[in-house]
Specification:
This protein is an alpha+beta fold and 550 residues long. Helix content is 17%, strand content 35%. The protein has a five-stranded antiparallel β-sheet with strand order 26-27-28-30-29, with no helix packed on it. Helix 1 (4-23) runs antiparallel to helix 3, helix 1 packs antiparallel against helix 7 and helix 3 (88-103) runs antiparallel to helix 6 (141-150). It is elongated.
Length: 550
């Protein structure tokens, strides 16, 4: 099997070759792997493949073409049924060719008899062809979606030349790894935490008074469950944190539940190890072990302006040994502590508290001394000024000497210096044709030298935070290096990105949800696993697009 980048480039070159034939009024009529010659396997060479064998190609006229041409297993159903065909027949064959390109297996590999090959044709033309049923599953979700649209029985329902070329130019086609649809039973937005060293995703959905919530342990590497999902009766989960082998969930029931997690091999159940009762609902959780101490701390940000700090002498220490170290009042009861981010090697912890940023000196967390809470200077607060007035901070992230945060109901990202503790930049990421409230920024995560900005429209806008800027896509006010999206290509309902987290050393996980129009009041959730791309990866993709695809 060829590498991911070369496979995508070859698929793009074949599509451009077909589109060129079509502009010349020619239908190939017999596209298949045997009629595509590999010219070079060097990724940066301008030409990697060439389409050949035009012996039965047809000049397209107004009335179309007719005749039983092509190769069974690759030809379009209208050709097999001896009906009028046009250039759309080539795209059906292209979809079948893509299957073999990305699996190294012919769609009819396991079917030797003519009747079996005919069944493959019938299944494909009626949208019933299944990767799982017949052979391999690929790690190219967007190509799978493209194949299926090319395989539609009615030629008028297949994508046109310009549509296919547009899909192949989209950076999402290569950056996307997996789309994991979650169980849709009373499914609230999925809340996840990850263990970056081994690609594990701990996912919670559902929950209500006397209702069930579901826990799933999934893999960001192959997109499949490590273990069978489990049901637990309890309130919805607001936030999740992984500490060693323990999974902590903060619920709307003013509690933190601590579970000992199963592994992918032992098949054990998720066992509740401890329950911590609180005075308010938990809005955020964060764990930190300082370099200058052996102990670690769990910070629980509450919706009443309080952060409670629990001391853990070891990440493997039994939860019954954990104890409350300090209670820090960071704001009034109307201010929710929605997120944390460490700066200065963990010596300071910046907290999104209502519409202000507060700083905790982590070396002074002790009830016997000053709690170490520092207000960002500006009348003891940094109010997040916006044209709509004060708004709560929804997301916070950072890198080195900078912090970025977003506001609820806004399309702006605010940038702060951790040295001067002042706001140094405001980025507006409003999409064309969208109002500010319908184009809200809902999640932030620093990925290498870029900032990934999740939006309520379902897109992730990627912005450079390095000195050099790669101007690949122009936004109205911010020059973005790329836009990652499922809505345009997978036919997913319009969803919202509400959480972006790291998952494994080279994966980024976006949690999304959308309203189910067929089930009133019901939400559905899915997880989207992307490759961890910074400026270099976006540059390489842009370079591939300019070497032999035009």
């Amino acid at each position: 099997m060829m590498g991911r980048k070369l496979s995508v480039k070859i698929a793009s070159q074949i599509a451009h070759g077909l589109a060129y034939l079509h502009t010349m009024g020619i239908t190939h009529a017999d596209l298949k792997p045997a009629n595509v010659l590999v010219f070079s396997k060097e990724i940066l060479d301008p030409v990697n493949v060439k389409i050949t064998d035009y012996g039965i190609s047809r000049i397209v006229d107004a009335s179309g073409n007719k005749g039983r041409v092509g190769t069974p297993g690759f030809r379009a159903p209208e050709i097999g049924h001896d009906l009028i065909f046009d250039k759309e027949a080539d795209w059906f064959s292209y979809g079948r060719l893509l299957y073999q390109l990305f699996t190294c297996v012919s769609p009819s590999h396991y079917f030797q008899q003519d009747t079996q090959v005919k069944q493959i044709d019938e299944d494909a033309s009626r949208g019933r062809f299944s990767f799982v049923r017949y052979t391999l599953q690929t790690s190219f979700p967007l190509f799978i979606a493209l194949m299926r649209t090319c395989w539609r029985e009615n030629p008028r329902d297949r994508p046109r030349d310009d549509r296919i070329l547009s899909v192949l130019r989209d950076v999402s086609i290569l950056a996307l790894r997996h789309v994991i649809e979650l169980d849709s039973f009373a499914c609230s937005s999925p809340i996840v935490t990850t263990t970056p060293e081994d690609y594990k995703i701990h996912t919670w959905t559902g929950g209500a008074l006397n209702a069930r919530r579901r826990y799933q342990l999934l893999s960001a590497d192959h997109g499949r469950p490590f273990a069978k999902s489990e049901l637990h009766v309890g309130m919805p989960v607001k936030c999740v944190l992984q500490v060693g082998r323990y999974n902590l969930i903060g619920t709307t029931g003013r509690e933190i539940l601590v579970f000992e997690c199963p592994t992918e091999t032992n098949g054990a159940a998720l066992n509740e190890a401890r329950k911590l009762n609180l005075k308010a609902t938990v809005a955020s959780l964060y764990y930190q072990q300082n370099d200058f101490e052996e102990v670690g701390y769990v910070f629980a940000g509450l919706e009443n302006g309080t952060t409670e700090v629990f001391q853990i002498n070891s990440s493997e220490e039994p939860p019954e040994e954990w104890f409350l170290k300090s209670t820090l009042q960071l704001g009034d009861k109307s201010m929710s502590c929605n997120g944390f981010h460490p700066v200065r090697s963990g010596k300071e912890l910046w907290v999104a508290c209502g519409s202000t940023l507060r700083i905790i000196n982590t070396s002074m967390i002790d009830l016997s001394v000053s709690p170490g809470v520092i207000n960002v200077p500006a009348d003891d607060n940094v109010s997040i000024d916006d044209s709509t007035g004060k708004q709560d901070i929804q997301s916070i992230t950072g890198q080195q000497n900078k912090i970025w945060c977003s506001l609820k109901g806004s399309n702006k990202v605010l940038e702060y210096s951790t040295q001067s503790r002042e706001k140094i930049n405001v980025m507006s990421l409003q999409s064309n044709g969208q109002s500010e409230t319908s184009d809200e920024i809902t999640a932030l995560e620093v990925v290498k030298d870029t900032l990934w900005v999740g939006k309520s429209t379902g897109e992730i806008v990627v912005v450079s935070i390095a000195d050099k800027v790669v101007d690949v896509l122009d936004n109205d006010e911010v020059s973005a290096v790329g836009v990652l999206s499922l809505n345009r290509m997978l036919g997913q309902p319009r969803g919202s990105v509400f959480q972006i987290v790291r998952a494994g050393k080279d994966r980024i996980l976006a949690c999304m949800h959308y309203k189910d129009s067929e089930r009133r009041g019901s939400d559905n959730g899915f997880l989207v696993v992307w490759e961890s791309w910074g400026l270099d990866e976006f540059e390489r993709f842009d370079k591939l697009q300019h070497t032999g695809s035009g």
